[in-house]
Amino acid sequence: MQIPLSKPDITQSEKKAVLEVLNTSHLSLGKKHIEFQDKVADFVGSKYAVAVNSGTSGLHLIIRALGIGRGDEVITAPFSFIASSNAILYEGAKPVFIDIDKNTSNIDVSKIEEKITPKTKAILAVDVFSHPADWDALGKIAKKHNLFLIEDSAEALGSEYKGKKCGSFGDAAIFAFYPNKQITTGEGGMIITNNKNIADMCKSMANQGRKVENGKWLEHIRLGYNYRLDEMSCALGIAQIARIDEILKKRSQVAKWYSEALKEIKAIELPYIDEHSKLSWFVYVVRLAENFSGEKRDMVIAKMAERGIACSNYFQPIHLQPFYKDEFGYKEGDYPVSEGISKRTLALPFFNNLTKEEVRYVAKNLKEVIHEF
């Protein structure tokens, strides 16, 4: 049996939607991107959405729209996909790392205020593995210190914090639609905000700096980028968001199967969910016992691969990436919680149509492999 790490859920509905666009003369800047924006905004409960070609592009545009630039600092966490910090660097600002909460793997809100300086302009918090950050505490800190609050919900479409959907807590937020996400557009992302000025700035910059309304094609009023999302991708996204309830139900079921199948394996810790949160299940990541080193975890991944089961580590801390070590002088020991958890994380195969039989097969083999150690 061969089981991939992830797999998109594409039905005839998605294929038909994309083909319909291909049969028109509008492959970009047509009606589909407007419809997709509206659908996602309605789902989240926000006023505005801006479709872009990646979540990374979305973060970049938000940071630029907020006027964050050279000499400024943005507080964030090192346990994340690298884009959350790279987007800060794009505008010449500096990411200031805060270590993570040992349970949720999200930014440790109790350590934020001690790192706030006159240069601090924003907090960029990530909903890691689709588990919501502590948005109540983050909102209070941001308000107290007059900081922007940016929500990286790339992994959390459909997750909820105290009954409110992720993507709706900050001044602006992003989702990402890479093929391993809850819904996919192949490549793609979405900016979410209730602030019209932010939305209009992002729309303009994503479209080469053109006016949002009544502009000429070769008239550019500000520095912009080609961050547009094409019509085929938007059509795919519309078909996917129409199935969001079905998709989230499937992912929840797979997660329940895993938790049941793995609960007796003493050498692993199951995903933590706090009492205020509902997860949309981007991935299913367990932690190996504390006696496992990063090297042993990697051996587990290799042995699972030999059995036809794709697994992965999630994440390598950003501050220990070669570029960040070279550029900023970070070293092991700087953020011990992130580093310790990173060495023990194991992402198991996870996607909508993973079967109960396949989940049991993964669990059986994982138990056998772990017992070799």
From TrEMBL:
The modification N6-(pyridoxal phosphate)lysine is found at residue 181. GO terms for biological process: polysaccharide biosynthetic process. The keyword Cell division does not apply. SUPFAM superfamilies: PLP-dependent transferases. The active site is at residue 181. It comes from the Bacteria. One of its GO terms (molecular function) is transaminase activity. Gene3D superfamilies: Aspartate Aminotransferase, domain 1, Type I PLP-dependent aspartate aminotransferase-like (Major domain). It holds the Pfam family DegT_DnrJ_EryC1. Coiled coil: none annotated. The keyword Oxidoreductase does not apply. InterPro entries: DegT/StrS_aminotransferase, PyrdxlP-dep_Trfase, PyrdxlP-dep_Trfase_major, PyrdxlP-dep_Trfase_small. Keywords: Pyridoxal phosphate. Belongs to the DegT/DnrJ/EryC1 family. PANTHER family: BLR3650 PROTEIN (PTHR30244:SF39), TRANSAMINASE (PTHR30244). This is Polysaccharide biosynthesis protein. It comes from Candidatus Staskawiczbacteria bacterium RIFCSPHIGHO2_01_FULL_39_25.
